[in-house]
Design brief:
Elements (H helix, E strand, L loop, with lengths): L5 H14 L3 E3 L2 E3 L5 E12 L4 E14 L2 E10 L6 H4 L5 E14 L3 E10 L1 E2 L7 E2 L1 E2 L4 E2 L2 E10 L2 E10 L9 E12 L2 E11 L8 E12 L2 E12 H6 L9 E12 L2 E11 L38 E12 L4 E11 L6 H6 L7 E13 L4 E12 L4 E13 L4 E14 L5 E13 L3 E15 L2 E16 L3 E10 L2 E5 L2 E5 L2 E12 L1
Antiparallel strand pairs: 1-2, 3-4, 3-32, 4-5, 5-6, 6-7, 7-12, 8-9, 10-11, 12-13, 13-14, 14-15, 15-16, 16-17, 17-18, 18-19, 19-20, 20-21, 21-22, 22-23, 23-24, 24-25, 25-26, 26-27, 27-28, 28-29, 29-32, 30-31
Length: 516
C-alpha cells in the first residue's frame, strides 16, 4: 500500500477526535459554543488489485449568532476519484471549496435572507434550475455569488447571480435567475421562473429558460404541472432564420389519486432541447424529474437509463393497494422515447429520425407479514433499454425475520437474466444478501454475487464477488461503515443521474460525524 500522506493522517486524527462528541484538552471536556456546528465525512478505499488508494474528505463548519451565519467546507482528495466527471482535473487537492456569509432579517412571513458566497438553489422540481450536492453520485454544481430570498405576505421571491465550477475547476459562466411563488389561494401554489446563462465569450449567445408552474390539492387529487420555454438568439438566427423565437420547450405533470387503500401516481414528461449547460458543456444547471423508478436492490439498478434533457418524452404509472395491515401490492410501468422529427432538437440537429423506445420498464411487488416475526417481499422486474440493446428479467425475494425488538435478520435473493437483442447472448447474475441488524447501532452484511456467461455454446464461465460490510454507530454522533472484499462494477442512480462504479477488490472505510 502506498505511504499515506501527512494530510491523510491529519484528517484521520481529526475525524476520530470528533467521534467522542466533544473535544478534550488535558482531560477536560470542551463543549462546542452555542451556534457552532461541525460535520465530517470521510471515505477511504484501497484496491489491492489495482494498487490504488483513494481518500475523500469533506469537513463542514457552520456558525450562527443572531441574524448572522457563516461557514465553510474543506475538501481533501488524496488523490481524488479517478473518474474524470468527478475529479474535475484535481489529482491531489485540498482547499476551502465552499464558503458563505448569510444574514436572516425578519421572519418567515415577512423577511429577507441575503447570502454571499457558495450556495445551492432549486426552482420548482428542477426543470429550470437544480443546483445541489449528492456525494453518493459525486454531483456538486454549487454556485458562487449572491442569493436573495424574500418573503412578504403570500409571496416568496428568490433572486440570484452565481458562477458554477466547470471540469477544469474554473468559474467562468454567469447564471442569473429569478423565481416568484404565490401561496395566497387555499390549496394552490403558483410559480414563475426565469434562468439565464451568460457565457464568458461574445461568440455564444445568452440562453434563457422561463417557466410557469402550479401545484394544487383538490379532494383526493394532488397535481403538479410546469411548462417551460427556451430562447437563444444565435440558434434563432442560424437555424430558424429569425422566424421563430423559441428554440426548445418542456412540460412535466404529476397527478396523484388516493382513495382508501388504493393510490395511483402518474407522471408525464416532454423535454425538447431543454438542457441548460455551461459554455464548455461540462456543467448541467437543470435536472427535471426523470420519470423513472429508483430501486433499493442491486441488480435492478444495474441497467440504468440516464436522463436526457434534450430529447425525451415518456410517462410513468404506479398503483398501490393495501389489502390489510399485513398485505399490500404495488405495480409500476414506465416508458421513455426519443422525440419525433418535428421537434426542436431534431430540427436543430438537422436529423429526421422516427421516435425510438429508449427505456421500457415494468415492476410489481408484493408484501405480506406472516406474523409479527416474519415478513416477505416478492418482486419481479422487466426492462428494455436501447443504449445496451438488452432486455432484463429480474425476480426478487426478500425475507425479514424479527428475532426480538432489537435483532433482525434479512435474507435477499436476486436473479437477473440479461439478453442481448442483437446477438441473442444471455448472461445471468445472482446475488445473495445476508444482513443482521441490531437496533440501533450495529449492522453486518454479507453480499455475494455470481455472474454466468456462455461465450461459446456449451462453455460456461462464472465469476464471483463477495464482500462483508460492517456498520456501527459510535457514540451519539458518528456512523461508521467498513467493507472488505470484492464488488462487481455497477451504477448508482438517483433521479436519472447516474454514477458508474468500477469493479473493486480491497477495503473501504466510511465515517460520518455530526456535532451541533
Amino acid at each position: 500500500m502506498k505511504k499515506t500522506s501527512k494530510t491523510v493522517i491529519s484528517i484521520l486524527v481529526l475525524s476520530f477526535l470528533l467521534v467522542s462528541g466533544n473535544l478534550k484538552i488535558y482531560g477536560q471536556s470542551i463543549e462546542l459554543p452555542n451556534g457552532l456546528g461541525i460535520s465530517n465525512q470521510l471515505e477511504y478505499a484501497y484496491d489491492s488489485q489495482k494498487d490504488l488508494e483513494i481518500l475523500e474528505n469533506w469537513l463542514n463548519l457552520d456558525y450562527r449568532n443572531g441574524i448572522f451565519s457563516t461557514g465553510f467546507r474543506l475538501d481533501v482528495f488524496q488523490p481524488n476519484d479517478p473518474n474524470p466527471s468527478i475529479s474535475r482535473g484535481k489529482n491531489r487537492f485540498a482547499d476551502i471549496a465552499y464558503k458563505y456569509v448569510q444574514a436572516d432579517i425578519g421572519n418567515k412571513r415577512e423577511g429577507l435572507q441575503i447570502r454571499v458566497g457558495n450556495y445551492y438553489a432549486l426552482f420548482g422540481r428542477g426543470m429550470l434550475l437544480k443546483s445541489y450536492e449528492d456525494r453518493s453520485l459525486r454531483v456538486d454544481n454549487n454556485l458562487m455569488g449572491v442569493k436573495l430570498l424574500a418573503n412578504y405576505s403570500d409571496f416568496q421571491l428568490t433572486a440570484l447571480a452565481g458562477m458554477p465550477e466547470n471540469a477544469d475547476a474554473e468559474r467562468k459562466d454567469l447564471i442569473h435567475a429569478v423565481d416568484l411563488e404565490y401561496r395566497g389561494i387555499k390549496k394552490v401554489k403558483l410559480g414563475a421562473s426565469v434562468v439565464s446563462n451568460l457565457p464568458q465569450t461574445e461568440a455564444n449567445a445568452r440562453t434563457t429558460l422561463a417557466s410557469l408552474r402550479t401545484a394544487t390539492s383538490l379532494w383526493n387529487f394532488d397535481f403538479y404541472g410546469e411548462y417551460g420555454i427556451k430562447k437563444n438568439n444565435q440558434i434563432e438566427e442560424t437555424v430558424f432564420g429569425g422566424n421563430e423565437s423559441i428554440v426548445g420547450n418542456a412540460f412535466y405533470g404529476n397527478l396523484n389519486f388516493y382513495y382508501g387503500p388504493f393510490s395511483l401516481t402518474s407522471e408525464y414528461k416532454y423535454y425538447d432541447n431543454f438542457a441548460l449547460m455551461s459554455n464548455d458543456g461540462t456543467v448541467i444547471y437543470n435536472t427535471p424529474p426523470a420519470v423513472r423508478k429508483d430501486y433499493q436492490y442491486i441488480l435492478l439498478n444495474r441497467h440504468p437509463s440516464p436522463l436526457d434533457q434534450n430529447n425525451e418524452q415518456g410517462f410513468q404509472l404506479e398503483a398501490s393497494l393495501n389489502l390489510s395491515e399485513d398485505t399490500y401490492f404495488s405495480a409500476n410501468y414506465s416508458e421513455t422515447k426519443t422525440l419525433n422529427s418535428g421537434s426542436y432538437y431534431q430540427r436543430i440537429m438537422s436529423s429526421n429520425v422516427i421516435p425510438r423506445m429508449q427505456f421500457k420498464e415494468f415492476y410489481v411487488q408484493g408484501f405480506h407479514a406472516w406474523s409479527k416475526d416474519v415478513k416477505t417481499i416478492v418482486g419481479f422486474g422487466y426492462n428494455e433499454e436501447l443504449s445496451t440493446n438488452t432486455k432484463n428479467i429480474t425476480p426478487i425475494l426478500e425475507n425479514r425475520f424479527y428475532l426480538d425488538d432489537m435483532n433482525t435478520l434479512k435474507v435477499i435473493l436476486e436473479h437477473q437474466q440479461t439478453t442481448n437483442n442483437f446477438s441473442g447472448e444471455k448472461k445471468f447474475d445472482d446475488v445473495l444478501v445476508l444482513e443482521y441488524l441490531r437496533s440501533p447501532k450495529l449492522s453486518i452484511s454479507f453480499v455475494t454475487e455470481m455472474e454466468t456467461t456462455e461465450p461459446e455454446e456449451g462453455r460456461l464461465v462464472r465469476k464471483f464477488w463477495t464482500f462483508i460490510q460492517l456498520g456501527y454507530q459510535l457514540g451519539e454522533h458518528t456512523d461508521l461503515s467498513f467493507l472488505v472484499g470484492s464488488r462487481q462494477a455497477g451504477n448508482i442512480c438517483i433521479g436519472g443521474v447516474c454514477r458508474y462504479e468500477p469493479e473493486f477488490n480491497g477495503v473501504e472505510l466510511k465515517m460520518v460525524t455530526r456535532l451541533f
